[in-house]
Every structure is written in structure tokens, then in C-alpha cells.
Amino acid sequence: MANSLYNPADIPESPPPSGVLVPGYFRKSQSYVTHRSKGTNDWLLTFTLSGQGAFYLEDQVETCEHGDVIMLSPGTPHHYVTSGNIWEFMWVHFVPQPEWAPWFQTVYVNRALIKTHVTDVSVQQRLRAAFQRLIGDCEGFGVHRQALAMNAMEEILLVLTQRIESENRGVDPRIDEVLHHLANHFAEPLTIDELAALTRLSPSRLSHLFKAQVGESIIDTLIQLRLRHAARLLARTTERIVDIAALVGFQSPYYFSRKFHSQYGLSPSEYRKQHGK
């Protein structure tokens, strides 16, 4: 995995072994350009933080801006450049692990270039943090640095795979953004107007589109997320029920108990008796 022992621009006669990781961070000016007439023998993934870049394939041009992720498959001839004043991006050359094959091949094989735009700020932050861990572990020391770096790489790919699978199923990216926001902020006092502002849709349009694609209203989905987390807390902690209600976002313990019973057929105390550890 050491950077000094592997050059992704080289095209060896046989593929490099799985587990190879060569990550980095660039902030490049207008003069930056990289040519690869034969492509590489590994996968290349880039995540643009700011500015603008562009990838040129034989019959395709893809620009990338803040939030864009581009992945190139092995053997894809290409070159890429800074197309604005600057291009700030994180990148990694990698060879997939064998255990990634079941989910990796369903999304990425037989495609020279894959592009997705990550709009959700929390997902952007997660990708950036995973990249930072990946780069730090690859450049650092320690017996377990390779395993730690591979965990970060796997997290990046799983987050992207989940997003691309949603796109392939026809889920509107704005609805996907709302779902991610609900999952990460379910305990907060959210409103339809605030969620609509994230997607630049009107509250009524967002509500209609969400119900059409998810099958439930935004409020019902939010309540489901809160109740699911409450059930975990009831089963695994000794927190008071009134405190759990507040922790997951319910202002009224009575309303929480009523909704919980409607969902699970048990009161919170009965659920704890049956499922608590």
C-alpha cells in the first residue's frame, strides 16, 4: 500500500494486487493537466471540494464542481484538467477488495466513467472526513494503518454506492437529500418549510413529491425514525422513558407513548420488559 512502491500511471502486464491505495489532496491552478492515453490499471475516484475540473474521454467530457464525485474504471483512456481558476479535490487510486465484489459489480462494472453529485451537506462532510482518514492512515505509521485505511475506503464506496443505487431506482436526488437530513437530524425540531428550503422546492411540492416517492408523508417518516431509535434505547439502556422521549425528539411523553404503542403494539415499558438486555 505504500505510495513509494506503486505508481498508478504505470500499466504493468498483470493487474496490481487488491488492497492497493494511493490517495491524496490537490489544489491546482489553471495550468494543471494530467494525460493518460492508456488509462490506469486501477480505479480512480475524485471528490471535488471547490473550483472546477474537467475529465476528457474519447467521446465524452465531464465537468466537476463542488460536491461532484467522478470514478474512472481501469483501462479508460483519459486526461483531466483544471477548467476554472482553481480545482480543489481529493482523489484515490485503488484496487477493490474481493469481498466488495457482490455490491461493487452491480453498480460500477461496464461503465468507463461514473458521476454523481452529492448535494447533502452531511454526506459531503462524511466523505471529506473519510478521505482525510484515508490519507492520514496511508501516510502514517502503525501496525493497523492498512486496515484503517481500507475501512475508510470502504466507507467512501458504500456511501456512494447507496446514493447511486437510489439514483438508479429513480429516487429524486432532492428527496434523497431530505431522507439523509431526516436520518441525521431526526431528534431536532424540523419543519416542512426548513426541509423545503434545502431542496429549493415549495413546501407543498416537496410534500407531494416525497409522498409519491417514499410512500409516506415527511412527518410519518420522521416519526418512524424517532420511534426506531427510541426502541433501541429502550432495549439497550436504562434511561427513563420520559428522557428517551425527549432524546429522540418528542416534546410530549404522552404523545410518544401513544405513537410507540401504535407502532409496536406495546407500551414503552412493556417493550423494555420484553426486549431489554
From TrEMBL:
<dbReference type="InterPro" id="IPR009057">
    <property type="entry name" value="Homeodomain-like_sf"/>
</dbReference>
<dbReference type="Pfam" id="PF12833">
    <property type="entry name" value="HTH_18"/>
</dbReference>
<feature type="domain" description="HTH araC/xylS-type">
    <location>
        <begin position="176"/>
        <end position="274"/>
    </location>
</feature>
<dbReference type="Pfam" id="PF02311">
    <property type="entry name" value="AraC_binding"/>
</dbReference>
<keyword id="KW-0804">Transcription</keyword>
<protein>
    <submittedName>
        <fullName>Helix-turn-helix domain-containing protein</fullName>
    </submittedName>
</protein>
<dbReference type="InterPro" id="IPR018060">
    <property type="entry name" value="HTH_AraC"/>
</dbReference>
<dbReference type="InterPro" id="IPR037923">
    <property type="entry name" value="HTH-like"/>
</dbReference>
<dbReference type="InterPro" id="IPR020449">
    <property type="entry name" value="Tscrpt_reg_AraC-type_HTH"/>
</dbReference>
<dbReference type="InterPro" id="IPR003313">
    <property type="entry name" value="AraC-bd"/>
</dbReference>
<keyword id="KW-0238">DNA-binding</keyword>
<keyword id="KW-0805">Transcription regulation</keyword>
